[in-house]
Amino acid sequence: MRFIHISDIHLYPPNEGRHSRLIREQLISYIRSKDYTADELLITGDFRHAKYQKKVSQIEINEVVAYVKAIAEAAGITEVEHIHIVPGNHDLDRTIIDGRKLAWIRRKYDAANGRFSKDELTLLKSQFKYFNSVCNTLYGNNHYWKTRELHTYRVLGDTVFLYLNTALTHHGDKDRGRLVIGNDCLDRLLREIAKKYPDKPIIVLAHHSPDCFEAHEKRAVEEILQRNPQVILYLCGDAHEAWNRRVNTHIEIMMGCLRQERTVEETFLYGDTDTNDYQVHHWVREWEPYAAADRRLREYFPAVSDSGLDNQPSLQPSITIPIEEEGHVFIDTRLNNDVLQWVAAGKPKEITVTLEVEKIRKCSERVAQLQAQIDKGVHLSKGEENEYTFCRKEIDRLTEWAAYKKTACECFLNDGLTQLYCQIIHKADFLDMLSRIINYDPGGSEYHDRLNSPEYETLDFTVTRDDGKGEYYFKAAVKKQMLWDMGLKPDTLMIDLFFMGFKNFTVEARRDIAVYYYIDFGREIFWGDSTIATDKHATNLYAYRVGLH
């Protein structure tokens, strides 16, 4: 069975821009040019952009359905029954249920039971008027989502397509990691499929990766899927990046979006379950094969075509970070690919980070030019002498800066526990943290502004090794409102915050604290002033006793 998998269309022409239009237009011509004929088109949610489209508009629904049909027709699909869709978090009305009610439903939910009450289920399903309208427009009023209890499935040919609504409790970015989906329904559907269609493979379509589920719900869902070896693929989206990994007995493949935004990946997947040939394509000014993503897929499916790959046989545990002249990270295709390969390979230890600092390059070139004049006996003007001296000092300063930033990045990348505790999961999370570590200047105005800001509370942390052999201190500025929300007043902050003592801190606050820590710790290691620094690669923020003093 050949298929095309796309996700996160986010179609809203009035707010798109040139690149988004090109991405969508060229996708159709690219599919035709590659002669990609498919049996099924699989779309894993987010048909609209809820930020701009808060009301249900039939005109906008007609536009997105027309685009979906155009993709299908480009792949040779002429019947709408071969188009498969699930809802995303942008495809619901977030005003139906207020935040307190939603929080109450989540708190009441028991993953061991995996069920919502009848009233809760009715309320949660009532949010999806937009998605239901998309289904009605695409399929007519009689379709597979019409009679579902919560999740549902269809059998086409030799394949079972299992559709999950994972967006039930997703109203905002902070809800990732707290989603619950009603796992009992999933379990009952898989039992029914195993009884009726024991020999057919199952492809699961969902908007979210289980990584976005609440911890107990994630464990329950993964256990349910593990007990059903018929499940071969779990296809999803949401994170706006290409990602794949093996989870127990199935492969999880995530696709990016079809809308241009900063730090996102525009991707689609062409797959063939009969030949195990799976190819990812991404848009970089134009559509092309995505070599880094395909390389990982080849480890799962040796039959994956080598077409378009750069034939690098194995992962090199290194990440190159380009630094613009202003000192900020430039997230280019190479950096995206390096981080993707490292994450997809299981985050191997002893990762090497290389910083390519544009200002060092320019200063080095200028110094070389002026030195060549000196070597030829040419007298430099006063301005050239000053420039020569300035450039040499800049090279020394930036080389030292790059060295401790490199160390800080390597410490972070080797710190699995902190990544877990700060919910740093996907490629975009790692890129964000690396950018913050590089961009943040502990001697700059932003640092001092935060330390002196009335909106922030400066916390003095101490890090002590469990064997008592080393101690380390660093400062972190945390928003006072967050502390008040936790019930911690500034005059009562003399508390022990070690291991799970950070559990009440928001994810954003944990990441802020981690950024301060790695920057300061990188400097300590570079200058050799810390006794803890002797075991650099064993270091992680939450493995040590970390407290306020």
Essential attributes:
alpha/beta; single chain; disordered C terminus; 549 residues; Transcription Regulator spoIIAA; globular
Write structural notes for this entry:
With 549 residues, the chain is an alpha/beta fold. The chain folds into three domains: 2-300, Transcription Regulator spoIIAA; 318-421, no CATH class; 440-548, no CATH class. It contains 16 helices and 17 strands. It has helices at residues 18-33, 58-74, 99-108, 118-125, 129-139, 183-196, 215-226, 291-300, 333-344, 358-375, 382-413, 416-421, 427-439, 445-452, 480-485, 507-527, and strands at 2-6, 40-43, 83-85, 152-156, 159-163, 202-205, 231-236, 243-247, 250-254, 267-272, 277-283, 287-289, 318-323, 352-357, 456-464, 471-479, 545-548. Strands 3-2-1-10-11-12 form a six-stranded mixed β-sheet, sandwiched between helices. A six-stranded mixed β-sheet has the order 4-5-6-7-9-8, sandwiched between helices. Helix 2 (58-74) packs across helix 5. 39% of the residues are buried.
